[in-house]
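Progress note, project year one: complex with thiamine diphosphate.
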Amino acid sequence: MDQAPGPRRSNALSLHVPAPRARPGDKPDFSGWSFPEPGATPRPDIDAPAFELRDYAYGLVRVLDMEGNALGPWAPHLSPDAMRRALKHMLLTRAFDERMHRAQRQGKTSFYMQSLGEEAIAVAAGMALSPDDMCFPSYRQQGLLIAREYPLIDMMHQIYSNARDPLKGRQLPIMYSSKRAGFFTISGNLATQLPIAVGWSMASAYSGDMRIAAAWVGDGATAEGDFHSAMTFAAVYRAPVIINVTNNQWAISSFQGIAGGDNTTFAARGIGYGVPPLRVDGNDFLAVYAVTQWAAERARANLGPTLIEHFSYRGGPHSTSDDPARYRPADEYRCWPLGDPIERLKQHLVSIGEWSEDQHRAAQEDAAETVRATGREAEKIGTLTEGAHPRSSMFDDVYKDLPWHLRQQRDESGS
Amino acid sequence: MAIMSMIQALNSALDTMMGRDPNVLTFGEDVGYFGGVFKVTEHLQQKYGARRCFDAPISEGGIAGTAIGMAVYGLRPVVEIQFADYMYPAYDQLVSEAAKIRYRSAGEFTVPLTVRMPYGGGIFGGQTHSQSPEALFTHVAGLKTVIPSTPYDAKGLLIAAIEDDDPIIFLEPKRIYNGPFDGRRDRPVVPWSKHDASEVPEGHYTIPLGKAAIVREGADCTILAYGTMVHVALAAAEESGIDSEVIDLRTLVPVDIETIVKSVSKTGRCVIVHEATRTSGYGGELSALVQEHCFYQLEAPIERVTGYDTPYPHALEWEYFPGPSRVIKAMRRVMEAA
Ligand SMILES: Cc1ncc(C[n+]2csc(CCOP(=O)(O)OP(=O)(O)O)c2C)c(N)n1
Ligand SMILES: [Mg+2]
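Model obtained:
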């Protein structure tokens, strides 16, 4: 017999289901969060033992203050040229996202995912890592390709699955792959790239190579078992890998508390494995650059992996398939206490006299024009339509050589 | 030539390949210092060092995932899943990644990986040391599935698997690791040394993937089998007095359709034997293939002799195990059907 619902006993157990502070209609609420002052966090030596670095899991590495000053020992002292390049990469990423999101709305492709508000995370890593370090991204690090100056038009061809799509129309839009750009084929299955990245970096170490690996996973997807196995193997074999958690507060409609973020930080997961846990302001380009550089130096010195939590906010919808106004306050993004990564780097460059409002407007227009012009070229080749790829190509690359059963199915498919 | 058990032959394959190719390395649970719970990797750590043969955390997903990463890098890892029954945590990596990486990257990234797993029953291993999950792999586009039945084949197939550029699931019938077993458990165990196929070359040789072996020629009935069941089928063929042809498939995907079709076209009768559960088992695929290719040559309905659709029962193992008596019954049915 099922128990009839009755009054709860006072000592009865009760199930806790975490809930975000604000849902649609509520006022965004980021109160009660405290962050260390910019410049206040010391920069440890790269050979510091992991157990001495525990506090970093609960702090936040910040370089830029909200007035645009670069402060403290983490300031990476990049040349103005490098910072201008970074700014342009971020502007281009944003302009690209804006246009491709719209292209999906116009029916030119089936799907798109923006990285609005998270551009610094990918672009800074793309610049701080060596060009031949291997990246194992999730789907929101298009900034890596842009920072590595992968042809924008090839990204568009992929998104349109057109005749020039390097992936032959096989993959969902934005699931790029480029060996040349050191960009591992994106999987739609969350977190699977993490143990693969660890294994790749183990192979690099095994082979006496110089290249390291870096992987990215969302706050939500840290709950997958692959996160645990990747951290375990990375720690056990001291793999030269950087595991980046992009904590953008949301996993589709689930806030980060559903992945355990209410109880501790994502960086703190590193402590249990003995992996240095750095937590960084993901909207602070210079801070992201600096921690990536630290972790990369550590990995290259055979000192093993680093876990980096990038604290940020997903500015746009999860993808073109959802409307965030249905599950979070519409103005939450605007209230994010750590600002916008592009604005903040711009402000810094302006404050040191290396950039101006006019230059910024021109750069913005430049990025938009590049995307427009490239878009026109890509669309000439084609947008998502049938017939861009020969039917027989469907059977290629399942195996190195076509086995008899696929040959038979290929022949059947044409008749 | 040396006389080897299947374990020694597999060990020799790994030794041969590690000796030839610095990109070959092996790891898994208890694989390093101890040489594996079945001793397939014995002495390899001593010989090649811990860098090339090492213990892994108890994390099949991690073992598969990191091995995939190594293969993507350009190594040829061979990993051991201690028992096939424990492959499920690795299944996502094998299905979602290993099998799909070549395709989704349009050939840019590849996964020359071999995943070894002891499988199958007949050892009183209960549910968690007896399963035959081959159909869970043969169903996956992008994987190849290989199962040897003798020491000679085990070495040649394992070397071919390691040298292959696609991910290979290499299932090892652990009941016949130390000697061929024909399903007659009341008879004394025969060691491999009494079997012709225990003569194994010490050096490098391969048995091509995708090629079956006709292990017994016959005119009246074809038996399709792999792994331990090859020996059961041979015993059934002898005892039944039916002039049967026994085909050891050796590779399940891609399967050697030519050899199958040729044999069934000749005999007009087909019995399929496997230890795995029946529903959606690999026998269903074989049956469909035989029907599609040999319908007009068939003299009788195809028979399947398989494990029952239950979890592997411990105490009732010998009721469950498809031994020669059940195979003979099926052979008689196909002979009488005409
Ligand atoms: C294994 C798996 N489970 C579920 C999904 C569906 N899914 C796609 S994205 C997503 C949310 C991921 O959120 P998060 O990890 O925080 O990354 P973000 O999108 O915020 O960058 C979900 C549930 C998937 N793709 N793969
Ligand atoms: Mg997220």
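The first helix of chain B runs from residue 6 to 20.
The first strand of chain B starts at residue 2 and ends at 3.
No further modelling is planned for this target in the current period.
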